[in-house]
Amino acid sequence: MVRDKKMKPVRATSTLGPVDKLEIKRLSNAERSAYFSRREAAKVLRSVLEGDARRRAVGSIKSLVFRPSIRNKKGTFALVCQTLKHLVIIKDVLEASSILKGKWKRQAELIYIITYDILFGQAVSLVGDAEKFLMQWKDDLQLALARLLVKEKVKTVEDLVNLYQIPEVSKPRYVRVNTLKIDVDSALLELGRQNMVQKDDVVPDLLILPPATDLHNHPLVMNGSVFLQGKASSMVATALDPKPGWEVLDACSAPGNKTAHLAALMRGKGKIIACELNKERVKRLKETIKLSGASNIKVLNGDFLNINPKDPSVSTIRAILLDPSCSGSGTVSVRLDNLLPSYAAADVKDTERLNKLAAFQKKALAHALSSLGIYFKGTIWSDNSSSS
């Protein structure tokens, strides 16, 4: 396709102008929802990709999407996951079309999202500068995709995706009951109105539902009565078994599900010091605590390794929950880490990163054991804390 070199793309802006607002008012509810979902998905995607590049995620894909600030959680989640699933293809197509350059690089995540919608998703409404810009290049994008199919010697997009995609593993949906707000039997009854539910045989306040059960908009999830929390994560506080009235230190707290679980097991009595070094993760931690309704948690934005066990403020601590950063290999499919660029294959491990994690785990464990602690190992790699 020949283009006029003098043609200028629509100017990119981060906010809506008067004309855009008028256009949005004319959209159907579905179109308006899709427009805002793309923007929300782009923000989540940026956090995910930046965290993956640093090997230090602010949260999992699910935890980022299910934050209170995300309005259309279902649409946003689908867009983020599908864009990540097709990201290698999207980047190849954009590069072949020479589209993602100049000022559009600053909105790369939104460009990825809209490109997914143009090539693989729903029809794109011509509202928003990025949408208008990319729709001008729709034919080029489709041509680049067709050439990529030929290059890789596959016939369909599905075949192309399978060249990069790790097979998905179907696992049950686990739900931890927040007993600060509701008892297990009441939660079982309420969730059982529309789903098959059963109690877990290991964790008393954990319920099991069929794989892929969608609960993100369920009232019990929205009000913090139940948490979408995996079994391995729920076993940690259960294993520690803190008693009401204890003082407990949660050494590496964010995103806060285990911290909130501690509070529930302690029936809201006693004191929990939730320690987290990363400021962004502290925000997520506080959101989780607020949602849980726990009132006996004190958040400490600092390095657990700098805490002096002999300090009077921590001298009365009865237990330490130490669940430090790990490889995440035990929760790859649950956290959807297999969609991330860094996850090349199921049997490939970043040796340098694993060594750093193992060194930190040993250091943290040694520091915790100067008082009292518990250590939870959640990895499939033998060199990830295996000698601890």
UniProtKB/TrEMBL annotation:
UniProt cross-references to InterPro entries, sorted A to Z: MeTrfase_RsmB-F_NOP2_cat, MeTrfase_RsmB-F_NOP2_dom, NSUN5_7_fdxn-like, NSUN5_RCM1_N, RCMT, SAM-dependent_MTases_sf
Stretches assigned to the SAM-dependent MTase RsmB/NOP-type domain: 163-388
Binding locations of S-adenosyl-L-methionine: C252, S253, A254, P255, G256, N257, K258, E276, D303, D323
GO molecular function, one term: RNA methyltransferase activity
Xref: SUPFAM superfamilies: S-adenosyl-L-methionine-dependent methyltransferases
GO BP terms, alphabetized: RNA methylation
Presence of keyword Transferase: yes
Keyword Methyltransferase in record: yes
Any matching Pfam family: NSUN5_fdxn-like
Coiled coil: none
Keywords: Methyltransferase, RNA-binding, S-adenosyl-L-methionine, Transferase
Similarity comment text for this entry: Belongs to the class I-like SAM-binding methyltransferase superfamily. RsmB/NOP family.
Record's protein name: SAM-dependent MTase RsmB/NOP-type domain-containing protein
Species of the source: Juglans regia (English walnut)
Native organism taxonomy: Eukaryota, Viridiplantae, Streptophyta, Embryophyta, Tracheophyta
